[in-house]
Design a protein that fits this description.
By secondary structure, the protein is of the alpha/beta class. The chain folds into 2 domains: 41-50 and 401-519, Glycosyl hydrolase domain, family 39 (Immunoglobulin-like), CATH 2.60.40; 57-393, Glycosidases (TIM Barrel, Alpha-Beta Barrel), CATH 3.20.20.80. The chain contains 14 helices and 22 strands. The chain has helices at residues 16-24, 75-88, 119-130, 167-185, 187-190, 211-229, 246-255, 273-277, 285-301, 323-326, 331-342, 383-392, 461-466, 475-484; strands at residues 41-48, 53-55, 63-65, 92-95, 106-108, 114-116, 134-139, 194-197, 235-240, 262-268, 310-316, 348-351, 375-376, 380-381, 397-399, 406-410, 416-422, 433-440, 446-453, 491-494, 500-507, 511-519. Helix 4 runs parallel beside helix 6 (211-229) and helix 11 packs parallel to helix 12. Mean pLDDT is 92; it is low at 4-36.
Length: 522
């Protein structure tokens, strides 16, 4: 969810005019370049290939966010979805606006009686399922004919955000919607979906007064309507920004016997300490997401429902349009380090978003503007997509390491997959880093494959800048940018026979590498 930039430590009010202005500013040249050569820092990391492990589910690629519902009918959306599905194997997609006017679900006749129309809903969900992805259904926003006030959020598509004019009609809408889904797709299928009530009601997406109490009523009516259709369907909330309201939400559900099957909330790397924790300390982007995840984890564990699954249904390094963050190689080390810190604390950490087929601030006017997606306009893969490709190859068992710059995993076949990175703040130069992996516990002959993502490997940003940063690249320029965004072939190194091998990798600032250590074939 794109959020308007603010310079106060209060909950962000999202004003589209400001954000759209940011979108249309001239994009400055990339600031990655090191202004002066610095001596590389060095680190040696010991990896025991036969050491103890713990389960390492790929929680960061379980689900992705996307542009609002109707965009899923576009060919470029579906093309990008297939590409990210191929890269990550993700299972769920979340988007806003299934009840927006352009989907046409709800209307009323002259007598004020509901008229339901599921034609586009069917096309939307048919398309997702055809491509091997299930819906994580966000119940939003308020249909125009059901809204109690004309208040709209500032996004380009102007969603209505008031409570319903009639709570019974809202409950009936949810019941008919869910019943239709089960009639079309079957109970067994829809029971594997998630239903999340609304989006970020604690900030500018909900106009109920007071916000929390009126949202809790919206949740109660929605959850009970869903369970009236099928008690085995999964429903959750509070879907808040800034990891808010989790404890009072659980308390409310317990005290009022309201069904809840999971907790959902959001956080971004540049959310503030004031907004997330109610304090005035600086928390760097590198730590914010993990610290918010830990906060929510601890709140759930301390609640009357300590086993509720925790889903961060939106997350990213930034809620603003920043080329040096979401369009750049910076995202790889940030993502890897966030995964390292969040392991064991969250069930799903959904990246916002999988594609720049996205128009919350209007139609994108250039391929690189700080869009959230892994794929830029024109099907151009960003460094972030290649970072996800590398991290997808990690194993499902995590080995213990004494480092904040590496993740070591073991796969089911016994091979090792180790990610290493050189984190530096976004837009800042930094020294290169030499990381030496001292791998112990090997038996036999092995080879190491090293695949990199940095400004010279798997990133199209420099190629775009060398073209003069065209707003509307020609078809040939787009082809060149797609080639520049391809993940390069790995370097293959034969390891010396024996139980220990040292592998040295030098990474530039914002560099990420994956080392895959496999037995040498005869």
């Amino acid at each position: 969810m794109k959020r308007a930039q603010t310079f106060r430590c209060t909950p962000r009010v999202r004003e589209a005019a400001l954000v759209f202005a940011m979108l249309n500013l001239l994009v400055p040249p990339s600031t990655f370049a090191q202004t002066a050569r610095e001596a590389p820092s060095k680190e040696t990391i010991t990896v025991n290939a036969a050491g103890p492990t713990h389960p390492f589910p790929h929680f960061w690629e379980h689900m992705f966010g996307s542009g609002h519902a109707i965009l899923s009918l576009r060919g470029d959306y579906q093309r990008d979805l297939r590409e990210v599905k191929k890269a990550t194997g993700f299972q769920y997609i979340r988007f806003h606006g299934v009840f927006l006017h352009d989907v046409g679900v709800y209307g009323e006749n002259a007598k004020g009686q509901p008229i339901y129309n599921f034609t586009y809903v069917d096309q939307i969900y048919d398309g997702l399922l055809k491509n091997g992805v299930r819906p994580y259904v966000e119940l939003s926003f308020m249909p125009k004919d059901l809204a109690s006030t004309p208040e709209q959020q500032a996004f380009w598509y102007k969603p209505y955000i008031s409570p319903p004019k009639n709570w019974n009609l809202w409950g009936d809408l949810i019941e008919h919607f869910v019943r239709h889904l089960e009639d079309r797709y079957g109970k067994g299928e829809v029971r594997q979906w998630y239903f999340e009530v609304w989006n970020e009601p604690n900030i500018s997406f909900w106009a109920g007064v007071p916000k929390q109490a009126t949202y809790f009523k919206l949740y109660d009516v929605s959850a009970r309507a869903i369970k009236s259709v099928d008690m085995q369907l999964r429903v959750g909330g509070p879907a808040t920004a800034q990891a808010a309201w989790v404890s009072p939400f659980i308390k409310h559900c317990v005290e009022n016997q309201v069904p809840v099957d999971f907790i959902s909330t959001h956080v971004y790397g540049d959310d503030t300490d004031q907004n997330v924790f109610g304090k005035k300390k600086f928390i760097p982007r590198r730590e914010m997401v993990a610290r918010a995840v830990k906060k929510v984890h601890d709140e759930v564990k301390a609640s009357a429902m300590p086993n509720l699954p925790i889903i961060f249904s939106e997350s990213n390094a930034s809620y603003m349009n920043q080329v040096d963050v979401t369009d750049s190689p910076f995202l790889g080390p940030w993502l890897a380090d966030t995964i390292r810190q969040c392991d064991g604390l969250v069930d799903s950490l959904a990246y916002w978003t999988f594609s720049d087929v996205f128009d919350e601030q209007g139609v994108p006017r250039r391929p690189f503007y700080g869009g959230f997606g892994l794929i830029a306009v024109g099907g151009i893969p960003k460094a972030s997509l290649n970072a996800f490709r590398l991290l997808h190859r990690l194993g499902t068992e995590r080995l213990q390491l004494d480092s904040d710059s590496a993740l070591a995993t073991r796969r089911a076949d016994g091979s090792l997959a180790i990610a290493v990175w050189n984190y530096a703040p976004a837009g800042k130069s930094g020294a290169s880093r030499q990381i030496t992996l001292s791998v112990r516990g090997l038996a036999g002959a092995y080879v190491a494959s090293i695949t990199r993502v940095d400004r010279n490997h798997g990133s199209p940003l420099d190629a775009w800048e060398s073209m003069g940063r065209p707003d509307f690249p020609s078809q040939e320029q787009q082809r060149e940018l797609r080639r520049a965004g391809q993940l390069p072939a790995p370097e293959v190194v034969a390891l010396p026979a024996g139980s220990t091998a040292d592998i040295a990798v030098t990474l530039p600032a914002h560099g990420l590498a994956l080392l895959e250590i496999t037995k040498k074939r005869n």
